[in-house]
Amino acid sequence: MRKKEMIAMLLAGGQGSRLGVLTSNKAKPAIPFGGKYRVIDFPLSNCINSGVDTVGVLTQYQPLTLNQHIGIGTPWDLDRRVGGVMILSPHVKRESGEWFQGTADAIYQNVDFIDQYNPDYVLILSGDHIYKMDYSRMLAFHKKNNCDVSIAALTVSWEEASRFGLMNIKEDSRIYEFEEKPPEPKSNLANMGIYIFRWDVLRDALERDNKIHPDSDFGKHVLPLLLEEGKRMYAYPFSGYWRDVGTIDSYWMANMDLIQTVPDFNLYENFDKIYTDADHQPPLYTGPNAEITGSIISEGSEVLGHVYNSVLGPGVIVEEGATVSDSIIMEECYIGKDTTIGRCIIDTGCTIGDGVTIGDGENIKNVHKPLLYDTGITVIGEHSTIPDNVSIGKNCVIFGKTEPHDYLGGRLESGQSIVKPMNANGVRA
Predict the structure, then answer these.
(1) Residue 115: per-residue pLDDT
(2) Closest to 272 measured CA to CA, from 131, 155, 86, 139
(3) Which residue has the higher pLDDT, 73 or 225?
(4) Which residues of 173-192 are buried (b: 16+ CB within 10 A; e: fewer)?
(5) Residue 372: is its pLDDT beyond 50?
(6) Do 138 and 236 meet the contact criterion of CB atoms below 8 Å apart?
(7) Residues 6+ apart with CB under 8 A from 155
(8) pLDDT at position 96, please?
(9) What is the spatial distance between Cα 66 and Cα 79, in angstroms, rounded to a whole number?
(10) Which residues on adjacent β-strands are paired with residue 311?
């Protein structure tokens, strides 16, 4: 196998439990974003734009959608005989198989994959962040400072600093201390979860830490170990757009960032393009009475009604008299006539009947999961059906094929849920 200077290992096995029903049947990196993209498209595109042509994608939770999307890596020019993209799932070793127990354990279980390329450096990435970044510049920084480890660092506001894993650095950017979500932070330099390691240093640390921590994790175990041992560890400054879309609210806000008049994150630039596996769709059709402002409408959609400040995926139909505002509608959804939808996330393949209202009423936290659904956003799980002429409040959750009798008096009050049980075929009927 031909030697590679640097290969990437992309951690894409997370369940994304804070995204609620959006990740019931798919991993967080497979969630649609910005209309036609998926979250994992961003680190994959960053790799090929940075000249990194060998990527191991580590999957675990609900990998089917993600595996189908990545395929052999053609959209990202990663369909190569030497290198390219490789899906790496937990597998049987000797007598038994093991799930990945932590971020570093996932890499440890795939040491043989890395060894076959004999890289000088290994780039560790997360599959659930939205950003553009040139990893070749980070590698140049890594070499210049003769680093054992370099960590991408983002300056966040002091108000938000206590939500992050933080790094304290010297004047030359060398890291001397980590703080994990401290109540009184000493710095506002956040760890972005993007690392470059010398492979010999990482390999040795993984082997030693695995004997102590079966759930070996970079932030909890490996990085503190290397820091304690005096390894050269530096913070690489990053100043561009970066969002972790790990909650309902952050996912909604990141999509809304795209539709600003001057967006913080621009998907239409001619450089550092984001690539995706998108089917060829017919052009967008707008009816004679349609009205669209401040929105992203993907190919194959038909808008006969009104769409404001929203993101629509491919193949969405918005019927006459319907109004969609401040919402994310994923692919192949149908919005019926005279329906009004506000501040809502509707997953793939849903059917919303005629005369429906979603998103009105008081902002009451969801009764069943108040920590997930508390910002006024109502979420409809994939392939759900909502009958005609019902109204649904804020922070509601609907998942499955619902009938008129599921709505008391034709209404689902704010903070309430309808989640249908699965049948023998795995369908919420």
Answers:
(1) 94
(2) 131
(3) 225
(4) bebeebbeeeeebebbbbbb
(5) yes
(6) yes
(7) 188, 189, 190, 237, 239
(8) 47
(9) 16
(10) 296, 328
Q: In this model, does residue 93 exceed pLDDT 60? A: no
Considering the entire predicted model, what is its pTM?
0.91
Cβ-contact 188, 161 below 8 angstroms:
yes
- First-residue to last-residue Cα distance in the chain: 50
Least confident of 175-184, 317-326, 385-394, 399-408: 175-184
Cα–Cα nearest to 380, from 422, 428, 423, 322 = 428
The share of the chain scoring above pLDDT 90, in percent, equals 68
Residue 206: strand, helix, or coil? helix
Q: Which residues contact 233 (CB under 8 A, 6 or more apart)?
A: 147, 148, 149, 150, 151, 174, 175, 223, 226, 227
90 φ, ψ (degrees, to nearest 5): -55, 140
Q: What phi, psi does 224 have (nearest 5°)? A: -60, -35
Element (H, E) at 209: helix 199-210
Q: What is the mean pLDDT of residues 11-22?
A: 82
Question: Could you tell me whether strands 378-380 and 397-399 are parallel, antiparallel, or unpaired per DSSP bridges?
Answer: parallel
Backbone angles phi, psi at 43, to 5 degrees: -65, -35
Cα gap 131→256, rounded to integer Å: 15
Using a 10 angstrom Cβ sphere, with 0-12 exposed, 13-18 middle and 19 or more buried, the burial of residue 342 is: buried
Residue 399 has pLDDT above 50, yes or no: yes
- Cα separation, 40 vs 29, whole angstroms: 5
pLDDT of residue 94 exceeding 60, the answer is no
Specify the pairing of strand 32-33 against strand 37-38: antiparallel
Q: H-helix or E-strand containing 153?
A: strand 149-155
What's the rounded Cα separation, in Å, for the pair 293 and 296?
A: 9
Distance CA 429, CA 422 (A): 6
Tokens linked to 403:
């009938």
Cα–Cα dist 322/308, whole Å: 11
Mean local confidence (pLDDT), 98-119: 86
Residue range 116-133: mean pLDDT, rounded: 94
